[in-house]
Each structure stands twice: as structure tokens, then as C-alpha cells.
Design goal:
Largest sheet: 15 strands, mixed
Strand content: 15-25%
Number of helices: 12
Structural class: alpha/beta
Radius of gyration: 21 Å
Strand order of the largest sheet: 9-10-5-11-4-1-3-2-16-17-18-15-12-14-13
Shape: globular
Order of helices and strands: EHEEHEHEEEEHEEHEHHEHEHHEHEHEEE
Number of strands: 18
Helix content: 25-40%
């Protein structure tokens, strides 16, 4: 079994989408206390990044207790465990990895968070996005984990080791943050880890683990080459957003979100945009705004909610804003169950799904790398990480 522990729900969905693409029976759950679902790959979505270090440790402990119970029940310990981290190292990465290492008996951890396929690389211990130091990008404005340096050691608060291309994994109880500028270097770094090393990182890392370790042990090279890397011809019709949803909601939970009103799909379904009023953004009661949203939704049946403010109010603002968005979404769902919900931003998505109490989600489509849909009842939920582009999700219809 493959067990993935993710620190937010869009990261979990992205990983589940990769497994789905490779025809692996995959389950996604937000329940960290119940027995793990019966599937070849289980992706556990948490909201660790939105809490504090103590919350992170406690959540990881509860999850690893479940994994250990599974091992005891099955009389074996051959699960492949992967710790999904934020691709730009936001969150309590060191605490999470150290907790998994301690609880599951790993001697070290190999962390490859960057995604070279998206222009995100680590070179000589520095994080670059399209050749620009991360501290000079929009990530310096992140409300909870602003990038103040491009040094991965400084980004993670020390207590980690930078692993160059020529270096080896030697010392125990260390977290190795690997350089990798391309797929070949990522593969080379991965081959340095043995079964006693916890594997952690982003989507490119997980994809490589499946191809070079997990699937390679189950099938031949020819079979691997036949695995889907996106929508197959048979699935092309399914890999489009619903053409005419009766009701649709679009929730843009980032202060960096761009307007969607000019997208062809949005125009075709006649969606109306509602930007959060400045007074609600700054802490005033949201009841009147939510009532106005319900009226717009009843009338137009397709609604975009967007924060719209560019200010960085810090963590307290971020937590309150996603709670407002979650409360508003619940009220809209109670007004009319949507056929389609599209959510941008992992913390916002988790807050919404938690508010709705939708714990068991069935994987449906991977529209593009990182943009994945699931279903709950008759509703399709499309999730997109806040730091990823929309791509042609809305224009390829």
C-alpha cells in the first residue's frame, strides 16, 4: 500500500490525481482518526499548515497511530510512506518530517519539494522559480509563511542538511534537502535513499517514486510506457468541466487570485462575480454580504466569490477570511446544491469541505497537473492550489 500524508487538501488531491493517472486504485480521506480506506493508494488530507507546530505534531501522531494499527492488523510493515509537503516549503515541514521519522522508525528523510516541471528548482541550496530567487517572487507576500530568503536552510529554520548532487545520505536523524534542477537530477537524488529513509516532497518527487520504485517493481518498462500521462482518448470527453451545470460555485480563496470573468467558460454559464467588501475583509460582520450572495446565486445560479483585496493582513486575517468563505459556501450549498464547485487555495478548500462535513471524496478527473476533481454525492469539486495557474481549465471547453 502507498500511504501519503499531505499538509493540505489541494496537495493531497494533486498527489491522488497522479496516482489516478497511473491507474492506481486511490482513495482520499480527510478523516485522520478512522481506519484507513481499503485501496492501493491512500492519500490523507490534513490542514496542518493552517495550525501551529503543536497541532502538526499531534495530527501526524494520530495518523501514524492509524498506520501502525494497520501494520499490526496485517502482520507486515511494507507500506510505502510519502510525506507530501508544500512545493515551496511553507508550513511546519521540519516538525512534520521529524514526527513521522520518530513514529515510524526512519533513520533520515530525503526532501525534494521543488517541481522542476513547473520551473521550481533548488540549485546549490537556493530555491529559484523560473530562475528568480523565491524571496523576490509573490511568495514573499504569503500571509502565513512569507519567503524571506532563498536559502532552503533558512527557509526551513535550520536543522536540515543541503544535499548537493555529489553528496551522499550518511548521517542518521537528518533531513536532507536535495538540489535538483531537472528530472535527471531528481532521479539521481532519489536513488541515494534506501528503505530506511523517509521520502518527502512535491508532485514531481511522487511521480518519480511511482515510476522508478513502485510501478517499476510491479510491471515491465513497456507497461510503464503505456500508462496514461493525462486524459486518454477515451477520457477526453470526461476531462472537461460540465458544459451546463444547473448551479455552480467558484471560490477564489487567495488574496492573489485573478478575476475569472473574462474566461470563456465563465461567460458561457453566465456566472456573476462577487468580491468581498473591504469592510468584511477587515473584520466587520459578514451576514449581510452572505445574504446578498444568496440572492445573486438564486438569480444567476452561477457565482464567483473572490476576496479581491491585495493586502497582507497576516495569519489572523488569513484564518478569518477562509472561515468566512467556508461559512458563505455552506449557506450557498444549503440554498441550492451545486453541480460544480471550483475552489482555489488549499487552506480555503479544507475549511469549506470541513464546514460541509464532506469527508469521503471519490476521485473523478485530473484536468491538469495539480488541478483535480472529486465527487461528493451529485456535486463535483475541482481543487486548485493557490500557487498554480489555472492553465486552460476554463478555455478548453
Amino acid at each position: 500500500m502507498i500511504i501519503v500524508i499531505a499538509d493540505d487538501i489541494t496537495g493531497a488531491a494533486e498527489i491522488a490525481g497522479i496516482a489516478l493517472r497511473k491507474n492506481i486504485d486511490t482513495a482520499l480521506t480527510t478523516d485522520v482518526d478512522s481506519p484507513l480506506p481499503d485501496a492501493e493508494a491512500v492519500v490523507i488530507a490534513t490542514d496542518i499548515r493552517s495550525g501551529n507546530e503543536t497541532d502538526a505534531e499531534e495530527t501526524i501522531t494520530r495518523i501514524t497511530n492509524n498506520i501502525r494499527r494497520l501494520d499490526m492488523r496485517n502482520g507486515l510493515n511494507n507500506n510505502l510512506i510519502f510525506k507530501k509537503t508544500d512545493s515551496v516549503l511553507r508550513g511546519y515541514v521540519v516538525k512534520e518530517l521529524r514526527t513521522v521519522m520518530k513514529r515510524m522508525g526512519f533513520k533520515a528523510s530525503l526532501l525534494i519539494a521543488q517541481n522542476p516541471t513547473k520551473g521550481r528548482v533548488i540549485k546549490e541550496g537556493r530555491y529559484l522559480i523560473n530562475n528568480v530567487p523565491i524571496c523576490d517572487t509573490d511568495f514573499k507576500h504569503d500571509p502565513e509563511f512569507p519567503a524571506k530568503s532563498s536559502s532552503v536552510i533558512e527557509m526551513l529554520g535550520g536543522n536540515v542538511v543541503s544535499l548537493g548532487i555529489q553528496d551522499s545520505i550518511k548521517a542518521e536523524n537528518k533531513i536532507y534537502v536535495a538540489d535538483a534542477e531537472n528530472q535527471d537530477e531528481l532521479s539521481l537524488q532519489l536513488r541515494k535513499a534506501d528503505s530506511d529513509v523517509l521520502l518527502a516532497g512535491g508532485a514531481d518527487m511522487f511521480n518519480t517514486i511511482l515510476d522508478e520504485i513502485y510501478l517499476n517493481s510491479k510491471m515491465g518498462k513497456g507497461d510503464l510506457e503505456n500508462i496514461n500521462n493525462g486524459c486518454s482518448d477515451e477520457k477526453k470527453g470526461a476531462c472537461k468541466l460540465q458544459e451546463a451545470p444547473e448551479h455552480a460555485l467558484f471560490i477564489c480563496g487567495s488574496t492573489q487570485s485573478k478575476p475569472l470573468t473574462e474566461e470563456k467558460y465563465i461567460k458561457d454559464i453566465n456566472a456573476v462575480e462577487a468580491v468581498m467588501p473591504s469592510e468584511v475583509y477587515h473584520g466587520n460582520d459578514e451576514t449581510a454580504w452572505i445574504e446578498s450572495l444568496k440572492g445573486m446565486y438564486r438569480e444567476r445560479k452561477a457565482l464567483i466569490m473572490r476576496i479581491g483585496q491585495a493586502e497582507n493582513g497576516g495569519k489572523d486575517y488569513a484564518v478569518r477570511l477562509r472561515n468566512v468563505m467556508a461559512k458563505a459556501t455552506k449557506e450557498l450549498v444549503l440554498t441550492a446544491t451545486p453541480d460544480l464547485i471550483v475552489i482555489e487555495g488549499g487552506a480555503t478548500a479544507y475549511s469549506i469541505i470541513n464546514e460541509l462535513d464532506w469527508k469521503c471524496l471519490k476521485l473523478k478527473n485530473e484536468y491538469a497537473p495539480g488541478i483535480v476533481s472529486m465527487t461528493y454525492g451529485s456535486t463535483e469539486i475541482v481543487l486548485k492550489p493557490g500557487s498554480y495557474p489555472w492553465g486552460n481549465l476554463f478555455s478548453k471547453q
